[in-house]
Amino acid sequence: MDELREILQEIRPDLDFDKETSLIDDKLLDSFDIISIAGEINTAFDVEINVENLLPENFNSMEAMYELICRLQDE
After folding, report:
1. CA distance 21 to 52
2. Distances (CA, A) of 10 to 2, 3, 29, 71
3. Secondary structure string (H, E, C) spanning 28-67
4. Residues 19-23: contacts with CB within 8 Å, 24+ apart?
5. One pLDDT digit (tens) per residue for the chain, 75 residues
6. Is CATH 3.30.460 the classification given to domain 2-11+23-74?
7. Are 48 and 72 in contact (CB under 8 A)?
8. Where are the chain's structural domains?
């Protein structure tokens, strides 16, 4: 989770990812942020986030992103 936190803070240092639970719903992240985050996650965690995974519920919080990473690593 620490590595994910670092990635998120590099991309959007203005957000508190430990507290936010509605990053997409509250429009705190835009599509460019999501693409950047997905690319960094793909590289850092050796997974492939594809179009089917680009759902709001997978990016609404740091926990949701971490759960997505875990699911993709288990595949």
Report:
1. 21
2. 12, 11, 13, 24
3. CCCHHHHHHHHHHHHHHHCCCCCHHHCCHHHHCCHHHHHH
4. 20/61, 20/62, 21/60, 21/61, 21/63, 22/60, 22/61, 23/59, 23/60, 23/61
5. 999 999 999 999 999 999 999 999 999 999 999 999 999 999 999 999 999 999 999 999 999 999 999 999 999
6. no
7. yes
8. 2-11+23-74
Residue 46's Cβ-count burial label (10 Å; 0-12, 13-18, 19+) is: exposed
Query: If you count them, how many residues does the chain have?
Result: 75
CB atoms within 10 A of CB 2: 6
d(CA 75, CA 20): 28
Q: Tell me the one-letter amino acid at 6.
A: E
